[in-house]
Design brief:
Elements lengths: L17 H7 L2 H7 L19 E5 L5 E4 L3 E2 L7 E2 L8 E6 L6 E6 L5 E6 L9 E4 L4 E5 L27 E7 L2 H9 L4 E9 L2 H20 L13 H6 L5 E8 L6 H11 L7 E2 L2 E2 L5 E5 L2 H16 L10 E4 L4 E2 L7 H4 L12
Parallel strand pairs: 15-16
Antiparallel strand pairs: 1-2, 1-9, 3-4, 4-8, 5-6, 6-7, 7-8, 10-12, 10-15, 11-12, 11-17, 13-14
Helix pairs in contact: 6-7
Length: about 350
């Protein structure tokens, strides 16, 4: 943070060394933010803070939470129903102290913030349990001075920050057992369904309807729509339908953005492998993103372009990017397969 306390969304220049960091943080702040400590409940700065404003990272100044999402959880720590800027939050599996939890950290400063629990209020159902020592509070009246003026609108009369938004994503990355199991664990994902999409049947009604209209227009003759059965596991595995094994993901964009889901998707499979992931081969195991909006189309095209330019891979990215057609739910025994069969095959590292 510079002398006037201004950081904004780009955050401040971070201290170059841990010794420099110790000079700007109190011993308690350093213990918690850098050594993953936990402060005492009911004996910290913000557990009962009710003033309007934004909570930023104590080191970088990156905006993390806002008072309008804060609630009294009765735990003695500041609790929030959602992050203010989802992209500024990083989640890690924490198996310390003999239990499995989701740790919450800041992106730019990598500060330990606290943990995430699934016992918060509706509509997110989440509780971000955060240490005050990892935060700095910027009052509503000081937002402009701190470079956070864009968040002033959240406190305008009549403004409502709705946290009940829902969006859908459809991804293919090999066997849908592992893909579904992975995304089920992502904070902000509300539901997942294993299924099939991307084949001819997904677009058949639309294409035939268009052809039918043209036929009627040119000749006055109608034509029957063929009775084609929806895809099932057997037909998809035969390769005859052209469908990919997919997972439909319903998510809350206030917790996890589409771009964050793309980052996870491309981290768990090889997008340069044509029609193969892990031990599975065939067109049904291809890498694919079926977008549902123009915004998603732009996001995935930009993501792939950036990923390709990074030269992370020696081979070209072959991920199919296509407008989403009809999604067909897979048979019931495929849903939550690895929950039902913990020892089942999985080509994905679920602990990433």
């Amino acid at each position: 943070m510079n002398d006037n306390g201004k950081c904004g969304n780009d955050a401040c220049a971070l201290p170059g060394t841990e010794e420099e960091l110790k000079k700007i943080l109190s011993p308690e702040q350093y213990r918690i933010a850098r050594e993953n400590g936990t402060e005492e409940p009911f004996k910290n700065a913000y557990w009962n803070e009710k003033s309007p404003g934004v909570y930023v990272d104590v080191i970088s100044g990156e905006p993390l939470f806002i008072s309008t999402d804060k609630f009294d959880s009765g735990t003695g720590w500041p609790s929030f129903a959602a992050p203010l800027v989802p992209a500024n939050i990083v989640y890690r599996r924490d198996s310390s102290h003999g239990m499995l939890r989701i740790e919450v950290r800041s992106l730019k400063a990598d500060s330990h913030l606290g943990h995430l629990f699934p016992d918060g209020p509706a509509p997110t159902g989440l509780r971000y349990c955060i240490n005050s020592a990892s935060l700095r509070f910027v009052h509503r009246d000081k937002l402009s001075e701190a470079g956070l003026d864009e968040y002033s609108k959240f406190f305008s009369p009549g403004f409502t920050r709705r946290l009940d938004d829902r969006q859908e994503a459809i991804f293919a990355a090999g066997c849908f057992w592992g893909v579904e199991a992975y995304f089920k664990r992502v904070p902000g994902v509300i539901s997942t369904n294993a299924g099939y999409s991307g084949g001819a049947r997904s677009y058949l009604n639309e294409e035939i309807s268009s052809a039918e209209r043209a036929d009627i227009s040119s000749s006055g003759r109608g034509r029957a729509i063929p009775d084609v059965a929806p895809p099932d596991y057997k037909s998809v595995c035969s390769g005859s339908t052209g469908h990919a094994e997919c997972v439909k993901i319903v998510f809350n964009p206030h917790v996890v953005t589409y771009e964050m889901l793309l980052q996870r998707l491309f981290s768990i499979h090889d997008p340069t492998s044509l029609n193969r992931q892990g031990n599975d081969t065939g067109t049904q195991y291809r890498s694919a993103v079926y977008y549902t909006t123009v915004e998603q189309k732009n996001a995935v095209e930009k993501f792939i372009q950036t990923l390709g330019a990074s030269r992370k891979y020696s081979a070209p990215i072959v991920t199919e990017v296509k407008k989403a057609g009809k999604f067909f739910d897979a048979e019931e025994y495929h849903q939550d397969y690895l929950d039902k069969n913990p020892g089942g095959y999985c080509h994905i590292n679920l602990d990433e």
